[in-house]
Amino acid sequence: MSDGKAQSAAAPFDADLEEQLGSIVGDSHLLVDPDVVASYESDWTGRFRARARCVVRPGSTAQVAAVVGACRAAEVAVCVQGGNTGLVGGSVPVPGSVVLSTLRLDEIEPIDEVAGQVTVGAGRTLASLQQVVRPAGFDVGVDFAARESCTVGGMASTNAGGERVLRYGTMRAQVVGVEAVMPDGSVVTRLAGLPKDNTGYDLVSLLSGAEGTLGVITRLRLRLVPWFVARAVALVAVEGVSEAVELVRAARQLPSLEAAELFFPAGLDLVCRHAGVNPPFAAAHPAYVLLECADRDDPSDDLLAALEAAGDIVSDATVATDARGRHALWAYRESHTESINAEGIPVKLDVAVPLAALPEAVAKLPTAIEAVAPRARLILFGHVNEGNLHVNVLDALDDDEAVTEAVLKLVASYGGSISAEHGVGRAKREWLSLSRSTEEIAVMRSIKSALDPAGLLNPGVLL
Ligand code: FAD
Ligand code: MLT
Ligand code: ZN
After folding, report:
1. Is 6 in the pocket of ligand 2 (CB under 6 A)?
2. Over the stretch 71-88, which tens digit does the pLDDT of each residue have?
3. I need a labelling partner for 402 at 20 to 30 A (CA). Which of 36, 228, 254, 271 fits?
4. pLDDT, tens digit, for every residue of 98-117?
5. CA separation for the pair 359, 344 (Å, rounded)
6. DSSP character for 183?
């Protein structure tokens, strides 16, 4: 392997490697049966797929280090996989590589209630972490629909965003410490979680959002936020994206505002069809905004006052405070991803533009896509406050390159990001220069080749 371009298929097959891996993790955690390995070989959408050599499931940091060491010696690439819910092909192996599954790294230490932090294994799912911290009055600052399957290691590695970013920031803002196995097999441990610590390069931040290209995260120290039980959700019908942005601008005055999500009739139709639910309003509207407030005391008065102050911007609204009603409203938004997939494999593009440009960008997207894929169906939704749009294009797999180019170039023309929260993965690698300068990409390459000169970890992801 050399120059970060390792492709394991090219490496000589060394049968000893399986023997070594089996002795490191125990034979029951080395998966070689093609039928069993298959579920690790394709991504959540079914768009990306490749044959792995085997899957290895280490149960400790020491085992991860030994696995990385054995693969490095055998010159076989390692592809890191958490919950495999990533949407840019980053969790899918390259042909002939070893898939390193983190799912057994799920230990959790007692909550540090004084610091308001917890140290947790990278393979723990978000939902199972929520179940532990919420009864103690804490919550995880990042949340989204893949919570039952996505791991905290995957969330950190993609710097996941989700539905609470306007209040708590992205995953990088939650990660205050990290333990990782580096490509040379060494273990970097920085788990103190000190809020103030200016002793040199910030390795914790560097590994967050690195998409598994610089190290295998084995443990994380996460800051926790208060768990607010009192919640109010409003689903608001508006005339368009400008009105949605205005509404969110006004609602942002509420300190309890936690989420502001956007969707449109095309997505709502799919959700109603595939999730088997009725539309929220008697009539269809051009756009919908879901707002959630959370506080110590019932925030519904604040939320209702904000809706009233918004006046004509609100065409219609429905509010829920009880858990069942809130979940029903959230389902209209959170069922989008699965409902879109139920229609077919989409070209998924996760982008962001400056908030002021959001209405114009949304208006231009259909024409830009139609010009290159006339039969394509566009389903848009996203996180309004961050100008983050999920551009899902159905019936366009034959034109995926042209669709990707059209959307990403439009976004770049607004100074936007070609990846707001899902990462670059394999899907957007070729387009990185639309969001990052030549000089920035050169620095990233230098970092990659300094830490992983052989290109052992996640070849083909990001760079
Ligand atoms: P995987 O998919 O397994 O991996 C993702 C990447 O991280 C890969 O490059 C992988 O190699 C790397 N990786 C995984 N674990 C480690 C580790 N321990 N060390 C080093 N590298 C690692 N994302 C958002 O940001 N916001 C959303 O609102 C959102 N909603 C979603 C809703 C649904 C229904 C689905 C299916 C996905 C959604 N996602 C969202 C995508 C999101 O990226 C993932 O859900 C999550 O962050 C990935 O976690 P994972 O454990 O599944 O990682
Ligand atoms: C979401 O916000 O629901 C996601 O990021 C998932 C998607 O883009 O489909
Ligand atoms: Zn999202």
Report:
1. no
2. 999 999 999 999 999 999
3. 271
4. 999 999 999 999 999 999 99
5. 27
6. T
